[in-house]
Amino acid sequence: MAGCGSGLSGETLTEQGHHWIGYDISKSMLDVALERGSEGDLLLADMGQGLGLRPGVIDGAISISAVQWLCNADKSCHNPRLRLKAFFGSLYRCLARGARAVLQFYADNVKQSEMIVTAAMRAGFAGGVVIDWPHSSKAKKSYLVLTCGPPSLHSSLPKGKGQDGVMCSDDDESNDGSGDDDEAQTVGIYERNRPKKRQKTKKNGKGKAWLLNKKEQMRRRGRDVPADTKYTGRKRKSYF
Amino acid sequence: MRLLTHNMLASNARGAVTGYPLKLQVVKWSTKEVEPNADFLRGILPKLDWPALVAATHALGLPELLPETPPTDAELSAEGAAEEEGGPLRRLHRALLEIHIEEGTLVCPDTERCFPISRGVPNMLLHEDEVRN
């Protein structure tokens, strides 16, 4: 688990019967995890330096709100791209074939999001970003869902939460425009619920009262206006 | 840190060829019993570097705990394997999951770089000049 902090999420992993290794860069956070009696093995480590695990030994990886920190250059010698490369590269290598990594992250902006996704793709991962609640600034969560090895029936991306409706690809952001799952190297971005086109006004056009008023206005201006009859402004059957 | 994790850990530092396996120098260790899970052990067996695991038990002063060759899947899946005290499954389980290294040092086999272990947590942080590019 990358960025395990005080071990809160690790407890869930343990409850599910998993053995896990937790990484965190903060000794004080890990001390809290120790006080809580964390069952996972904790490592004081910087994931931007690489995970240091030998190839193919890990069955799954998760991260909660940690990956975006790799985009910051905390020290002048940090190069975010190299750190992202070290993280995703070492993650890819240590995962067993068919294993999955799900990394929840908060991106400050589109540029950061792209940096993260590109680094994952360059490392060899397939997958994409699933966004829960894309239109709520509070609830919005982005998940980078990655698989190692060829995609299979089971490796399709889950639907993001938000509203009902279909998952669709956001053409502006996806890398080759089609989110083609047959290509192992492709990472598509699926955004749940693109903003819908502005709905037609509920008023259903302008009412009869408005029409009569308008006609009177036109008459005052001296225009030629047909007389008002019982048919004026009547609701018609829709033709479309 | 359990030996399961030690078996997977490598040095990331510049100069390390493989950085694996990390030599174990143990100052303090403890045991904590947990229920064995045969399915987990059978699943993890092919992923283990057996010689590194055996070497780790030797470093702890437990040369008798594990055999030189790994148990077979048949031995681990045998009827009553989990209940047999001193049997291959219980031994593997004890080595991997019940031993906790509390204080000590991990040493890179290539560069002799030392990673201290304190309160069971290895410090794998690299200095800026050690990071590989």
UniProtKB/TrEMBL annotation, chain A:
Natural source organism: Zizania palustris (Northern wild rice)
Pfam families (UniProt xref): Methyltransf_11, WBS_methylT
Biological process (GO), any one: rRNA (guanine-N7)-methylation
Protein name: 18S rRNA (guanine(1575)-N(7))-methyltransferase Bud23 C-terminal domain-containing protein
Acidic residues compositional bias, start-end: 169-184
Subcellular location: Cytoplasm; Nucleus
Segments of this protein annotated with the region Disordered: 156-240
InterPro entries, A to Z: Bud23-like, Bud23_C, Methyltransf_11
The UniProt record lists the keyword Methyltransferase: yes
18S rRNA (guanine(1575)-N(7))-methyltransferase Bud23 C-terminal domain: residues covered: 146-237
Top-rank lineage group of the source organism: Eukaryota
GO MF, one example: rRNA (guanine) methyltransferase activity
UniProt keyword list: Cytoplasm, Methyltransferase, Nucleus, S-adenosyl-L-methionine, Transferase
Sequence ranges assigned to domain Methyltransferase type in this UniProt record: 2-101
Biased composition (Basic residues): 194-206
GO cellular component: cytoplasm; nucleolus
The keyword Cytoplasm belongs to this UniProt entry's keyword annotation: yes
Automatic annotation (TrEMBL), chain B:
Start and end residues of each stretch annotated as Disordered: 65-87
Gene source species: Zizania palustris (Northern wild rice)
Protein name: Multifunctional methyltransferase subunit TRM112-like protein
Protein family according to the UniProt entry: Belongs to the TRM112 family.
Transmembrane segments: none
InterPro entries noted in UniProt: Trm112 (IPR039127), Trm112-like (IPR005651)
GO molecular function: protein heterodimerization activity
GO terms for biological process, alphabetical: rRNA (guanine-N7)-methylation; tRNA methylation
Complexes and interactors: Interacts with TRM9.
